[in-house]
C-alpha cells in the first residue's frame, strides 16, 4: 500500500489568547465550543500540542512498536469519530505516524468520567469501523486499511475496571461461534492508578497529566499552586503562557470549587520573574478588580434606579476603569440613570 501524502491537519480546542492581548481572558469562557466540557477542552488543548503528543507516546507506546515507527513524523488529524450525543463524555484525537509498511493510525480515546465506562470496547469497535470507512472513502484505490492502535486515557476518581477484551462483553460462546466474534483489546493509560512519581515525560507532558490527575483532588487550589511551580520550568515562555491560561480555565471550570478570585489571589502570592508571564498575570488580576468594581456599581444602580437593562449591564461590564470611577462618583448625586451615564 502506497504512502499517502498528508496535509497539515491539527485538531485542538479553542484558540488560546495572544500573549500580548490587551485584555486577559476570563476563565469562565464563552469560547468553549458547543460540544465541549472542561475535561474535553483541556485534553484537546494539551494533547493536541504536537510536542506533548510525541513525548507522551514515546513514554507509553510498547518498545517493539516504537522501534518500527518514526514519532518525528507524527501528525494530528482533524478526524473525530465520537458521535455528537457522546461528546459530553468522550473526546478523541487521531494521531498518524509513519510505519515501515505504510501509515499507522494511532487512535486515542480520552475517557473523563468519574467512573469507568463499561462499554468502552463496544464504542471503540464503532470508532474503528468509522475510521476504516472514512479511510476507504478518502483512498478509493486502497484495498487494505492502516492498522490502528487504540489507547484509552483515563483519569477518573477510581481505578479503571472495565473489560479489556471484546470477548468479555459477549455471553459464553460455543466453540463453533468463536471465529465469528471480533477479538481485540486496547491499551490503557490509567492516570488515577499512578503515583505522582510514576507520571513520566518532559515537564509539559507531566504537567498536563498531573493536572488531569489532580482535578478531582480534595484541595484543587493547593494542587493548582503545585502546577504553577511546574510551569516555571517550561523553557519556551510563550508555550508556558498558553499552558497557564489553559490550566487556569480548566481548574475554574472543571473542579466547581475553584473561583476566579481564588486564582487571582494565588497568582498574586506567586509572582514570576518572567516579563511575559507577569504581564499576563498583572492584566488578569487587574481585570478581576475591574469586574469587581463593575459588579458593585451594578448593585448600586439596582438599589437606586431599579434593575438595569441588559444593555446597561453590558456597557458597564465592558467599561474601562476611568469610566467606572466616573460613574461611581456620579451615582451619588444623579437623579436618573441617564444622567449618571452621560
UniProtKB/TrEMBL annotation:
GO BP: DNA recombination
Transposase (putative) YhgA-like domain span: 37-238
Domain of life per record: Bacteria
Region forming the signal peptide: none
GO molecular-function terms, A-Z: double-stranded DNA endonuclease activity
Official protein name in the record: Transposase (putative) YhgA-like domain-containing protein
Species, as recorded: Candidatus Thiodictyon syntrophicum
Lineage: Bacteria, Pseudomonadati, Pseudomonadota, Gammaproteobacteria, Chromatiales
